[in-house]
Amino acid sequence: MPFFNLDELEADHITPEYSSAVGPNIRGEKIEVGRFYYPKGTEAKAHAHPNEQIQVVIRGSGRFHTGGEEKTLDPGDVIFNPPNVEHGIIEVIEDLEVINCKDVVPGWSVKWARWKPEEEE
Questions:
Q1: Where on the phi/psi map is residue 37: left (φ > 0), alpha (ψ -120 to 50), or beta?
Q2: How far is the first Cα of the chain from the last one, in angstroms, to the nearest whole number?
Q3: Is 26 part of any domain?
């Protein structure tokens, strides 16, 4: 199916090990795109993954960090996280909503933040 409506897709915890993000996510062979919600006062703990990642803030505000730099992002702001670079959200200042885009890395589980055993592929 080539068409989706994010409001009609099931929301899920994206990576519960280090993030409070909840939302729908669509995964293709090479890219995944989601709309994630982070409640005020939460965070996304510092982490790194083999995926390249871009997040566009569409609502709210948060203090982000990537590669040793920090910045408060508001609607319209974008953060680029290169692969294997530590990043996260230090504080969600106002309820935060982002469009999240990652490349798909074969064998890597975004949900569980680890390499999948071959039998799970």
A1: beta
A2: 22
A3: yes
What CATH number is attached to the domain comprising 61? 2.60.120.10
* E-state strands within the chain: 12-13, 22-23, 25-27, 31-38, 44-47, 53-66, 69-73, 78-81, 87-103, 108-109, 114-115
Q: Is the pLDDT of residue 121 over 70?
A: no
Does the pLDDT value for residue 120 go beyond 90? no
Query: Which tokens is 50 given?
Result: 């083999």
**Quick one: 23 exposed, middle or buried, by C-beta within 10 A (0-12, 13-18, 19+)?**
buried
Tell me the three state secondary structure of residue 108.
strand
In a domain, 3, yes or no: no
In whole angstroms, give the CA distance from residue 54 to residue 112: 19
Tens digits of residue pLDDT in 24-52: 999 999 999 999 999 999 999 999 999 99
**Domain residues for 44?**
8-107
